Amino acid sequence: PHFDPEGAGCNGDAGYCSYDVGPNVCAYCLPASLPLTSEDQYKLVTSGTCADYGYKTIYDSSKCKAAASSLGKIITWGPYGGYEDVVDGCSLRGDGLFLNPVDICNSTFLIGFWTYTGCQCVDKQPCFCEI
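RE: above sequence
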């Protein structure tokens, strides 16, 4: 591969030469039809917000449940919303699933109380986010 032109096939297979990868390396593409698994669609965020990491906040009940399930969380309650001390979107506290609509969380509500998050994803109430 070292002397082959960029993009030329190598090793008689589906590989191709790429000097970005290295001078003696064949590069390979993943099949275009490779499906995403549910684990690839959702992330758990424990600080800041989903948007801080380039993810989307989940506001849909079925996606919220799917995210929790795909990340191995056992839920016994929810998702429910309308709580001023809970971050907007889909989040988890214990085995309860929360789903607050946009702009329900109040960053000054219950400051100092154990449920206070400042409208952020935190360790005690992480957020489920969509990639």
